[in-house]
Amino acid sequence: MDKILSVLVSGGIVMVPLAICSVLALAIIIEKFIVLRKSKLLNPEIISVIKNLSHPEDIPLALNVTSNYKAPLSQLVSIILENARQPVDDIKEDVSDQGRQEIRFLERGLGILETVAAIAPILGLLGTVFGMIDVFATISQMGVGDAASLSSGISEALVSTAFGLSIGIPTLVLYNYFSRRAHDLILDMENLCNELIRKVRKFKLAA
Fold this sequence. Notes:
- The protein has helices spanning 2-9, 15-35, 38-41, 44-52, 59-66, 72-82, 88-106, 110-142, 147-157, 159-206.
- By secondary structure, the protein is mainly α.
- The chain has one domain (2-206).
- Helix 2 (15-35) packs parallel to helix 10 (159-206) and helix 8 packs antiparallel against helix 10.
């Protein structure tokens, strides 16, 4: 452990912002794994409400079920059911407004992940440049006779680049994964809401 710490410290001052980036990215990744669970966002009971709604008299019971959940889909379903007597265009507008808020919630933190994925390798490269400047300064003073010291200095200079890449690569992969997952969940919720709106429209036509 001490050896690992000494190697990291040898990376220079840029290791500080890199460490901050790693902690920030890890916190967001953990939060996204928790928030973007399909079972949490697409609750089976809420989906069952949508699928089984067949008559206007079912709306109060459906509202009672949705009131027990605070997930994005339940919020959208509640808006549709509470405004079932309103014109369909008005319902769609209300759902669209709430949907934008839910999308912002689902995508929260992804911009930071994207930024970390982009700047971590660059910070690592910057640290290597600083390290190489020190190596060449040493060469100008002591020459290249001490090959062991020279190779050790170059090795230390590359630490920051290795650390930056080790942060940036997995962060980029997970950013793409979470972005795709959020997009798919949003489409699923949109399809379910459209299905419910179509049922509400049929209730109006049958009335």
